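Colleagues,

For the teaching module next term, I've prepared a clean inverse folding example: a structure given as tokens, and then the sequence designed for it. I'd like students to try predicting residues themselves before seeing the answer, so please don't circulate the second half yet.
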């Protein structure tokens, strides 16, 4: 049991420790010019690495837009840059969702488009760089904002912990593969700018509650407005920040700084979000936004109670507290009654389908197959956490522990961010993008603490011998105590410290090599340009997508209507410049189900449905010849499920043969008779033989004698990846 004297000694040591920590903080704030120059230079180099590591796609291929959604963003940016922002807001796109069309200005998050348009105008009018076109700006948005993300991450972690931790976190986020996958050159998607807006909003929010300044609270709300305008994932911010504020209230860390910063953020941010047409009154009507208002109301209640306790006598305070509790119960009862009434008319309480899929991972597969069909909405494999986050996920747990030593408002925020991100990314692989910066921040803090211990241990000098100590054993114990006291932590022998520093440098070098490899090989290939390795180590390019879209653009009428699965709608409109029935916006489930129903129907029935929709051409993606696994046959069951969710005559069990989804001779008769099957395998036997193999399914196809009477093949790309068929005006009899 500790004696009072011992306890006094511990208390004095603690006070000295606190004084020493304050001194270290003051010393860090008054940084020498040389150290400041090194810090700024390092940060600039990190930003340069973040930019350059994302340029592999341009070096290997060309300046080209990637994936599917970016083509719509590029098309709209072209309109805004050529005809002005007013034309963008008033744009009605009659070439999509035929015959419905789409009001683009009211259904799009405009942040990415307006950012690229503004940059293009600045380069043209201010810097007079007239050779730069809109596509070049769109291609470079991802690398540019990745540099900004590295800087904002540094600012946030520096504010929470230290400069060294900030630089390490910035270096991680600059090179982490999960973020590279969404920000390579040509990946002109909302996430390219949204992750910068997310990290910068968090930095400004933490600064506002640290300083209690209304100015920083307003700045945080402006950054939040930019995040809202850029990506639908802004709901993560509007729920994470209230959770953090609620946690501070629970652990009794309420302060005027917290109240000022949080209230300015929530009120101004909500008002600004309502300005956007795509959000409007959803900012105050949908359940995703209610947590912010609930915590604000709770915070006002806590502030009132503290104010009354500080100003009233004990008797008056007790009376006021009883009145306050009674009034609160009454208000909560009215609110609960309103919520129950609202639930009667809206079973999901106006939660979006994607939000409900996060809260209940089985919700989408049960009720909204269009959401479950998207590969980005599937749960990731465990290996993807290591492959895409690497050191970030390995050091993340240590970073969480380090944040509790000591626990501040900022470190608590990083802990909550990290824990929630792990859960949501485990439900939906797309949200690995939200986990990436959180893992980088925590990994930077953990590695900074490790390097601090190693470097301090390496620079510890041997203690000078004292004449009064005669025993050699006492000298050794005295020296060890001095070493530990000078280091502040458990001292490590100098050789081991040097070995630890060298090992850390090696691990970081390997991490950078791994990230560069994934950035160059894994995430730099555009979806429209595919490649494979030949036996002699060379590279073989598959350019079938652009070949097919070019044929549509050059050989069909401008007013022609083209039907395909919704995955290819944006690309068809942007690259082929033809009207499509559905595209990647997926706002009308019934329209998509109609296309799925036609693909899952027999040829004659599908022809009738397409004729009613004025369809002139139908194309399918087929990978059976070259082994391209992302073809329409592999996606076909989702077409059946989505179509069956609207039309009762489509039953998934009818397309299953002997308990499995198959395309061989044991496939179900319904499957072998569908339009999708016929359009994919038509004339396939002429190329691979009647006993040939489908290289994706690794099996023989079931029906080599396919005939078409209502559709005519007009184009098949070099590797059979795109097959285009004309919808005939009247049926013709084709001989087998």
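(Answer key — instructors only)
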């Amino acid at each position: 049991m500790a004696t009072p004297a011992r306890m006094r000694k511990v208390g004095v040591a603690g006070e000295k420790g606190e004084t020493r920590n304050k001194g270290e903080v003051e010393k860090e704030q008054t940084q020498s010019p040389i150290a400041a120059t090194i810090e700024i230079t390092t940060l600039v180099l990190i930003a340069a690495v973040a930019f350059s590591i994302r340029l592999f796609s341009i070096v290997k291929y060309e300046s080209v837009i990637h994936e599917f959604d970016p083509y719509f963003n590029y098309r709209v940016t072209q309109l805004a840059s050529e005809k002005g922002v007013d034309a963008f807001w008033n744009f009605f796109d009659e070439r999509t969702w035929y015959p419905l069309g789409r009001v683009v200005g009211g259904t799009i998050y405009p942040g990415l488009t307006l950012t690229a348009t503004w940059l293009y105008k600045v380069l043209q009018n201010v810097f007079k760089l007239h050779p730069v076109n809109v596509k070049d700006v769109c291609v470079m948005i991802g690398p540019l904002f990745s540099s900004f993300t590295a800087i904002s991450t540094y600012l946030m972690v520096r504010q929470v912990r230290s400069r060294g931790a900030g630089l390490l976190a910035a270096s991680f986020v600059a090179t982490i593969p999960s973020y590279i996958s969404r920000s390579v050159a040509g990946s002109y998607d909302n996430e390219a700018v949204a992750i910068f807006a997310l990290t910068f909003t968090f930095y400004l929010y933490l600064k506002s509650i640290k300083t209690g300044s209304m100015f920083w609270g307003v700045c945080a709300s402006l950054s939040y407005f930019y995040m809202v305008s850029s990506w639908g994932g802004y709901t993560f911010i509007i729920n994470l920040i209230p959770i953090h504020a609620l946690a501070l209230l629970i652990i009794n860390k309420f302060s005027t700084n917290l109240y000022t910063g949080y209230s300015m953020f929530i009120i101004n941010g909500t008002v600004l979000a309502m300005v956007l047409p795509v959000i409007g009154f959803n900012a105050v009507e949908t359940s995703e936004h209610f947590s912010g208002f609930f915590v604000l109301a709770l915070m006002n209640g806590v502030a009132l109670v503290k104010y009354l306790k500080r100003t009233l006598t004990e008797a008056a305070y007790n009376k006021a507290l009883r009145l306050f509790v009674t009034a609160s119960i009454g208000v909560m009862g009215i609110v609960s009654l309103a919520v129950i009434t609202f639930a009667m008319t809206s079973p999901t309480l106006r939660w979006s389908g994607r939000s409900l899929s996060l809260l209940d991972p089985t919700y989408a597969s049960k009720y909204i197959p269009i959401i479950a069909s998207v590969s980005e909405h599937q749960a990731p494999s465990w290996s993807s956490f290591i492959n895409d986050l690497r050191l970030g996920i390995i050091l993340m747990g240590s970073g969480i522990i380090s944040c509790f030593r000591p626990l501040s408002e900022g470190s608590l925020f990083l802990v909550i961010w990290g824990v929630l991100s792990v859960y949501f990314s485990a439900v939906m692989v797309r949200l690995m993008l939200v986990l990436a910066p959180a893992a980088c921040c925590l990994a930077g803090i953990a590695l900074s603490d490790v390097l601090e211990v190693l470097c301090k241990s390496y620079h510890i000098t041997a203690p000078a011998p004292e004449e009064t100590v005669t025993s050699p054993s006492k000298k050794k114990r005295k020296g060890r105590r001095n070493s530990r006291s000078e280091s502040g932590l458990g001292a490590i022998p100098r050789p081991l410290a040097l070995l630890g520093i060298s090992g850390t440098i090696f691990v970081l070098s390997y991490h950078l090599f791994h990230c560069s490899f994934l950035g160059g090989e894994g995430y730099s290939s555009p979806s429209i340009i595919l490649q494979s390795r030949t036996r002699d180590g060379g590279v073989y390019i598959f350019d079938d997508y652009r070949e097919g879209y070019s044929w549509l653009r050059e050989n069909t009428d401008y007013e022609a209507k083209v039907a395909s699965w919704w995955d290819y709608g944006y690309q068809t409109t942007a690259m082929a410049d033809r009207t499509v029935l559905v595209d990647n916006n997926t706002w009308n489930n019934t329209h998509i189900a109609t296309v799925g129903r036609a693909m899952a129907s027999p040829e004659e029935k599908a022809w009738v449905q397409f004729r009613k929709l004025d369809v002139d051409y139908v194309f399918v993606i087929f990978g059976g010849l070259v082994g391209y696994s992302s073809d329409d046959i592999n996606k076909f069951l989702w077409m059946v499920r989505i179509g069956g969710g609207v039309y009762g005559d489509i039953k998934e069990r009818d397309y299953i043969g002997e308990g499995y989804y198959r395309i061989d001779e044991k496939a179900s008769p319904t499957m072998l008779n569908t339009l999708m099957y016929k359009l994919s395998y038509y004339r396939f036997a002429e190329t691979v033989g009647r006993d040939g193999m489908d290289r994706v399914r690794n099996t023989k196809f079931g029906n080599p004698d396919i005939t078409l009477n209502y559709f005519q093949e007009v184009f098949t790309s070099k590797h059979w990846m795109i097959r285009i068929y004309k919808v005939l005006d009247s049926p013709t009899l084709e001989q087998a």
